Structure formats: structure tokens, C-alpha cells
Amino acid sequence: MPDYNPIELMICVASRILEDGATVVVGTGAPCAAAMLAQKTSAENLCIMFEAGGVAPKLPAMPISVGDSRTFHKALHAGSMPEVMETCQRGMVDYCFLGGAQLDMYGNINSTLIGTDHRKPKVRFPGSGGANDLASLCWRIISMTTQDTKRFTEKLDFLTSPGYLSGGESRYEAGLPKGTGPYRIVTNMAIMGFDQESKRMKVLSINPGYSRKQVQENCGFELLWAEKLDDTTPPSTEELRILREEVDPDGYIIGR
Amino acid sequence: MPDYNPIELMICVASRILEDGATVVVGTGAPCAAAMLAQKTSAENLCIMFEAGGVAPKLPAMPISVGDSRTFHKALHAGSMPEVMETCQRGMVDYCFLGGAQLDMYGNINSTLIGTDHRKPKVRFPGSGGANDLASLCWRIISMTTQDTKRFTEKLDFLTSPGYLSGGESRYEAGLPKGTGPYRIVTNMAIMGFDQESKRMKVLSINPGYSRKQVQENCGFELLWAEKLDDTTPPSTEELRILREEVDPDGYIIGR
Amino acid sequence: MSTKDLKSGQNELFVSPDGDEARAFFREKSRAPEPKLSSVGEAVRTLLDDGDYIAIGGFGANRIPTAIVHEIVRQGKKNLGFAGHTSTHDFQILVAGECFDRCDIAYIIGLEARGLSPAARRYMQSGRIRVTEWTNAALAWRLKAAAMGLSFIPARTMLGTDTFVYSAAKEILCPFTGQKYAALPALFPDFAAIHVHEADVYGNCRVQGVTISDQDLARASKKVVITTERIVPADSIRARPKETFIPFWCVDAVIEVPYGSYPGNMPYEYFSDEEHLRRWLEVEKNPEEYERFIKEQIFDTESFNDYLNLNGGIENMSRLRAKELMIDKV
Amino acid sequence: MSTKDLKSGQNELFVSPDGDEARAFFREKSRAPEPKLSSVGEAVRTLLDDGDYIAIGGFGANRIPTAIVHEIVRQGKKNLGFAGHTSTHDFQILVAGECFDRCDIAYIIGLEARGLSPAARRYMQSGRIRVTEWTNAALAWRLKAAAMGLSFIPARTMLGTDTFVYSAAKEILCPFTGQKYAALPALFPDFAAIHVHEADVYGNCRVQGVTISDQDLARASKKVVITTERIVPADSIRARPKETFIPFWCVDAVIEVPYGSYPGNMPYEYFSDEEHLRRWLEVEKNPEEYERFIKEQIFDTESFNDYLNLNGGIENMSRLRAKELMIDKV
Is the peptide bond before D263 cis (omega within 30 degrees of 0)? Predict the structure, then answer.
């Protein structure tokens, strides 16, 4: 079995979620790497989009900004931010990737602040950026994140971007588009989905080297468990080769 | 005094209304000729726009369509219909020209139908096109039209484009932008404006060769009269020369 | 102003403005960058059904997909809904086939400075057509609302007029200022045809000149057929990504149709054939002559090239090209 | 769903969304095509007042009008409102001058993959700044609503979240479908600065690459300053009218500033100076070093060329150009 680090594992696992012919809005870093890896493995015709307007570029290197030149290098289209967001709102975008400082059992995300005083927070983060928009408007939200009890929390300090809100049908009752929502959470320890009824986070698969107990202990809320719990397929030699040699040869993201 | 026909008179009179540095949306025909004449006389920097998206062209000939190539020949911008309409809605367009089959004392215009059954009219016309939009959104509406009692009517068969609606403040109470409305009606017989309070049509100036009596007799509703009634300045030799030689050398509009 | 005093247009809304319904359709629409080359006959046969609501790109006799409009008539499509937005010659052709039985009206019947179509007028005065009034901006913004994935958009047009009364718009108040607006329902056509200057086989399109409402029409419509003066290599699209006017995922079929906007104007390519358009207006006055003319021009021409040859072929096209480029008087 | 259950964001709306107020301003704004050449100092002095609400074009460290942002700091403008939309390095510079005291937030503090700005974070955690939350699309659409001359636009974003609670949006229902939307109030900035590739002296502008929200920002803003890599003849604009991205009537001042987006990326011209941006993040950790750095980089540089020379001059610019064009590794 090949040797790999947690970020390599997460990128490989996330890349497999993206099917050929789908559309995905990505940010910088690991999500972009996962989408690039997907294009070079199972999803040649995956259409990668960036929120500043870049559509289907031939990425010559990892973007530093979702608006830099690389995001529309030999692209099929260099558009605008409203155009990309409206394409999402119209229902033409299948996937987005989101991260944050905190995540709750309904897949809601905090990227705004830690503290209780909005005007004078303990720690201020960048805010929504495009995250709330993508979480609201794309069909399926994917998150990649290291798992611990601070990050996976019972109660967010601030609900920046919508997951399933308070569960059940609450997301759609709030006015968000039908059929949308969090789809997969890929951590260093496991792969989670969401229960169809309650919309609570449910572990689907455990990564090599981790136990059910560890996955729960590193989560600040009670996890649901799939009836038939899978073992996550580890990165293949070929996936790792492409990731290390073609996707991120400088090791900016995978740290090699 | 030079010889001229009624359409030449109306074009010359209308052209003088347009001041230098203003913006105007025009259609094909006489309005376009008036704007071109203004550019070549008193309003060199008049910015001519067409609703299909053409902005500030160097018109090589009279357009046949407000969307044909001539409307953006060597233009400063070839945009879109929403862009032009939104520029109007934002308050950046000073003038528009409108015509129609019927006109009432508040400057409301019918270009939709004659008859009483909307689905099966006696005579169907093209409808609003962009007329209602321009009448709603530009600051000042100008009309050029031959005057008779059928055209200048007490009651429109259909109110296609808004003038002052039922007078007074009714235009603004309907939600239309403050400070907008019909500004001048240029006919073969006279030049009309509108009373500030009642918003009824008011004769400002009578054209050479016509009497106050004729102007009223050729109007289907009671006209108001300016306290100090002017005599319309007839087209100058120079205006006619430019109109005939440079603006409409083929006589498409002025019929020469 | 209280919300209960707000007025509603009394006429029919022909297409559901529901954003979630549209999203459900768009979710299933292919966004794979795959070749979409087709033929005029196949595209109309497979993508357009009787009863659909359609819209035509361009501006009536400027950059119009004439071959597709002819084919709709030729295949005898019926009971269509039609967006009478900046329509002139396209409207005239569809009237010749009596293809539509309901119409959103902004501008119909006329051909601008050329005059009015007698046949179109007869059709619209017959009482057989269900009609709803709008304006050019209103239909443009209805398409924009749909392209944005919204079910409505506010506008300051149509207010206070009969155009509003006979529309399907509704008054609403701005929640911030109390300002009254006309709420315009999103328009998601079932089918749109757009003629462009250049497209690759995937449907990435470029146009020259004014764009009218085509940027929104391509995005708002559920199925989109592109006719193009020229197919270009995908590499050419990637060389100038800023110029991609319609991205491939909007498009269902791409067909190369040189002189495809004839008898309409194609910016920087060829001017409109004013003689031909005048002939239409002339023959429409005489029903028998009109029938013969339509048979000859549309039903008996098997391909668009046949139609071009019938109307002067390459020689005429070269003449119109010279006129467009203003080298005809040199 | 009844309208009385509709929620409102509880935070402050910094700019009036009133369409008629904006129209009254735009009515008086000059639309004469007159030369508007200016200097960085004059443009900021004459077009920007303390207390104004401002917005910066581009995307934080991509195609930004750095010279104008520096000058705002240098002239000591205070109590500004700021649209924290796709802001990164521009935000960082304005924080260095403590220029703004209220902020609409979509994305602030961060420099994307480069990390977070310690100084910006301190500023935003100080409690001295009035803040209202939004999202990237929400601010983009607020600008679009203004560009359209509307006081609001509906959107399906922010709903159900704390981002909405701490915004100034309001829930509304679609009058056709009953669908719940977030109504976004139009944003008419008092002042915007945008960097472009080419402009003529009248302010007709062209850009290359993605446009982000600048098409709407230029139209929504009451006063607009353009910095441009190159002034081009007006004839060049007329030769390609389709490419005019911002028309002259939006623009109040035009200034030629070569390398004007430095240290940011300018598509097809030069890449961002990552070393320089890293230096900012580094010095911000040490207040004394930070003060020295800001003095040296902004207050003591009399012109933008001085600033460029301080940071490697033409040689460095050539290096960044090679990187952008990907000829640095050849």
C-alpha cells in the first residue's frame, strides 16, 4: 500500500466524488487540486469554474486567487462574478467545495467569527465571500477538512453558509432551492453524508487506520452511522503519482 | 424665406430642442434625422443611442432598423438592449422620441390597436416595442407628428405608453420616476408643451402659415395656450442645406 | 401605499416563471463539453415539439436564424407560443406557417422603417391568437430574470398604462423604499434559436455588433439551437475566452449556415436584402400570390442553400456583403 | 406563507438604495464626451470626500487601482464607508490608513491562498468599525440592481443564515410563485476606482480577462475614476465598439498608470508580486516595523512611479511580466 499524508487522502477521495461531465465551482488550494485530479483520472470532461468568472481553463499552475490569470488561462470563457453566480442560481452547477472554522451536524458552516459580539468578535474571519452563495445555489456541497471537536461543533458561533440549517425541511422552508444541500464531508478520518430524513451528518466510510470510536471522539456532536459502513479506498499509486507529479508538482498544497 | 415641407419643419424644430452634451434614444426615420441634424448644428456632442445597443455611432446612412449595422458603425459602444434600457432606468438618458396612432391631452400615446376587443382588434399596430420603456424611463419625451382630430384624440383606444396619465401627479403616483414626462410635441402646425400643474397639453408656439383657430380645429381635445404665444422660427437655409445634403441626401425621410 | 391596492395585469402568463421548476430541468441538462453538430432538420425535429413556447434571437431582420425559422414552418410545427420580442421578419415567417396560437407582444407585425406586414396583421386581427402585452425592456428583463435563475424582477416600466392592464405583470412595493414597481415574471422559453458569427462544435459562441437580448435568451431557454456563419476550432475559443458570448453548456445543437441571417443583416458580413423584404410586404397583399411565394421560398426549398440560390445565390450575397462593408459605392 | 412572517436583517444599511435619489444625481452628471485626463492626486482630492462610501474594482490583488488606493491613504481620507467585496490587498492598504469606519462585508481580512492580514484583523476586531454582513453574490447583485436603476433585486442567497441576520436584507415573496427571496438593496457607491487595460481620454474602457463586478460597479457608482495601463486613441475604441466595457458617461477622471495594478496581477500584462505581498503579511505582525513600512511604501512615495522604483522598478516589472506570460521558465 502506498504511503500518503492526510491531505493527499482527502484530495483523492474528494476527486472521486466528481463525475464526468459535471460542473464544479472551486476555490484555491485543496478543492482546486481535487478537481484537477478528477479531470486527470475519472472525469476528463469535468467543467471547473471560479467565482470571479473563469470557466473551464487549462490550469497551468495552482491559482493563488480565484480571480488571477490562471483561472481563465486558455479558458472556454472569461466571464464575470454575477454570471457565474447566476449560472449557479439557475441550477446549472452541480458541485461546490466549502471550508470553514466550524461545522455542525447539519453541515452548516462558520467562516465569519468566533465570539458573541458581532461588532467586536474574539476572532474575525473573512466572512462568507462566495461561500454562502455557492452553499445556497449549487446542487451539492462538498467539504474537505481535518476533523476535531473544535471544528466539528454542536453550536456554531455564527452560521455563515447554509447546510441543512436545523434539519428536516428547514433548508427549503427558508427559501433555498429544492434538492440542494451538503453532500459529502471528507475528513482525515472518514467520509460523511447526511441522513435523508433528519438531515444529520452520517458516517458512510472510515479511512484506513481510524476506528469508529476515534471518528466519534473527534467530533463535537453525535454522529449517525450508515447501516453498512464502508472502508474508504485509500489513494492508489496512480492517483498519488498524478497528484504529486502533475497537479501539485511544487507541493504547495500537499506539502511534499 | 426658404421653402420647406412639413416634415422638414418638424425635424428642424425638434433638432433645436436637443442640447449639446445630452443623451437621446432615437428610432428610425424623422427622430434619427432630427438628432443627426442637431449634431451637425447646435449639439455636436449629442450622444445618440439605439435601443438594440448601439451608442454614439458615426452614422454612415439612415438606419432601416434600430438594430442594424449602421446603428453601431464606428460607435463608441455596441452594447445590448438591457444595457440601454437600464441606462435609461438609471436616469442617464435625457431625451427620447415617440410616435403613435393616437395621442391625448396628457401626452399619453397609443401604438397598440384601434377597437375595443383586445384579442380581436379592428386594427392592430406593432404594440409598445420600446416606446413604453423610453416614455417611462427617459427624462423628457418628444413627439413629432402630423396634427389632426383623429390623431389628437380625447380618449385613446389603448394607452400604450405613459404621458402624464390622467394629469396632475398621477404619473408619479403610478410609480414612474419623478421628474420625467412628455416635454414637447412638434406638429406641422405648432409646438406644444405641458402645463406644470394640470399636465395638460399647452401650445407654446405656432408654425408659420397656421392660425390659433386651425391648431385647435385640428385637435380632438381642448388645448391650453401659453400666455406669451411664440411664432415658431422656420427652418434656416443652413439647417435645410445640412438636412438635405448631409442628413438625408437620398430623401428617404424628407421625401425630396 | 398598502399592498392590497396593488394591481395585476389581467392577461395570460404563457410560461411558468417558477425558478425551482426551471432548476429541475437545468439539473438534468447536459453540461458535458461534447460535440453538438446537427442539421437544421434534425435540430427542429428533435428539440422542438408542437405546443412549445419559442423565442428567436437577434432583432427581427438583424442576425436572425432564418434557416431554423423556415424549418419550423416546413415541418408544420403548430400551437407554439411565441415571444414577440424585437420580432419582425422572423414573426412574418412564423405567421406564414400559422405556427403559433399565443403570443407575448412587445413588437409585432411591423418591419420597422419598412412598414407593416399585411399577413401578420390579418393573423393578429383574426381573434384566433391569445395575446399578452409587454414592452421590449419588459421581455428583455423577463429573459434576464430567467437567466439569473429568478422567478421575477422589478422594473419601472409599463406602470399606469393599458400595456400593464393587458399584461401578466403585477405591481409590488420595494421593501426598502416603498417605491412601486412592475414585477415581471421570468420567461424560460422551451426553445430558442440564435444565429452567431462563430461557434465551435461544443456550442461556445462569439458574435460581433450589438447583442440585443441574446446573452440572456441563450441562458434563459431550456433548449438552444445555434446557427453560425462559421464553425471555428475550439482552440480559437480558448485563445480569446473573453469573447465567448454564449458558453457551450447553454447549447443543444450547432449548425453551420453561411449567410444564415439572410434576408436579414449580419453585422460586418452582409447587409439586409431590402428588395427581398419589400417583396414579402408586396405579395402579402394578394393571398394567392402570397401562397405561391411561401411555397416557392420555404416549402419547396429543401435546404437553406436552395433558398439562397433562389434569391440570387453567391452573386447576391456578394452584393450584400459589399453594401455592408460600404465598398459598393467605391 | 404570510408577508408578516417575513424577516429583516438587523444591521445597518450604509447607502440609500432609493432609485429616484440616484436618478436625481445621474440627471446632473455630465454625459458630454469631453476629455477627462487627470492625476491621481487631483482625482482623489476633487472626487472623494471624507465620509463618502467607496468601492474598489477588480478582485483584491487582481486588476486593482493601487495608485488610487494609496492616494486615499496619503491624503488622509477618513470615515469612509467601504464595500468589502472581493477585497484583499486593497482592503489591507485602506486599513493601513485607517480610512474607513463602516464596512459592508463579503470577504475581508484575507488574501486568499496567501493567508490573513494581521493588521486588517486587528482593525476589524477593534470594535471601532460598523459592519454589515453580505456575500460576494449579494454585493455583486446589489451593484447590479443599482446599475439597472432599481432600488432592490431578489436573490436566493443568504436565506436562513446568520449572514442574513447581520445583513440589511429583507425577505420578500415572489408575487407569482410565493417563493421566498432575500431582497437586496441597491448599492450606489459615492466613489469607485477601477483599473483597466485601455481607456481613451473620454473614459471609454476596455479590459482583458474576467470582469468580476466592474461592469456593474462602473454603472452603479456616482463618481468613477479610471486608472489605465495605456491611454488609447478614441479611434481605436470606435474600431471595436463591442469591446467597450465601460462607456465614457460613467467616468469622471482618466489617469494613465502603467503597472497600475502592482503588486496585484494584471491579466496578460504582469503577475502579482508574491514576495511583496508576503512582506506585507510579515511586517504587519510587528507594529513598529509595520509603521515604518507603510511610511516608506505609501507616505514617502510621491508618485506611483516612485513606489514602483522602490520595489524593483522596471526590472521587477519585467520579471512579473515574464511570469504572467509564462516565459520565465523558458
Answer: yes
The helix-helix angle for C118-125 and C89-96 (nearest 10°) equals: 60
The CA–CA distances, whole Å, from D105 to A132, D55, D129, D169 equal: 13, 12, 11, 13
What pLDDT digit, counting tens, does each position of D21-72 carry? 999 999 999 998 899 999 999 999 999 999 999 999 999 999 999 999 999 9
Cis? peptide before C185, omega within 30° of 0: no
Query: Are the Cβ atoms of C176 and D17 closer than 8 angstroms?
Result: yes
Q: pLDDT tens digit string along A149-176?
A: 999 999 999 999 999 999 999 999 999 9
Rounded Cα–Cα distance for residues D113 and D111 (Å): 6
* pLDDT over 80 (residue D149): yes
Mutate to test the interface with B, among C114, C142, C143, C157 (most CBs of B within 10 A): C157
Domain locations along chain A: 6-247
Q: What are the φ/ψ torsions at residue B170 (nearest 5 degrees)?
A: -60, -30
Total structural domains in chain D? 1
Cell of C244: 465567448
Kindly identify which residue of chain B lies nearest to residue C86, measuring between CA atoms: B129
User: CB–CB of C273/C311 below 8 Å?
Assistant: yes
Amino acid at A141: I
Question: Cβ of C124 under 8 Å from any chain B Cβ?
Answer: yes
Say if the ipTM goes beyond 0.85. Answer: yes
- What pTM does this model have? 0.98
Least CB–CB distance from A86: residue in C27, C148, C238: C148
Residue B103 has pLDDT above 70, yes or no: yes
Q: Exposed e or buried b for every residue in C86-124, given b needs 16+ CB within 10 A?
A: bbbbbbbbbbbbbbbebbbbbbbbbbbbbebbbbbbebb
Domain of D112 in residue numbering reads as 3-329
Catalytic residues of A, by residue number, are 51
Cell numbers that stand for A57 in this block: 481553463
Chains C and A touching, counted as 3 or more CB pairs less than 8 Å apart: yes
Q: Of the candidates B76, B91, B139, which has its C-beta nearest D248's C-beta?
A: B76
Q: Do the two chains B and A touch, given a threshold of 8 Å on CB pairs and at least 3 pairs?
A: no
Domain A6-247 fold = Glutaconate Coenzyme A-transferase (3.40.1080)
- d(CA C226, CA C207) in angstroms, rounded, equals 12
Q: State the DSSP string of D175-218.
A: TTT--EEEEEE----SEEEEEEEEE-TT--EE--S--BTHHHHH
Q: What CATH number should be reported for the domain holding residue D60? A: 3.40.1080.10
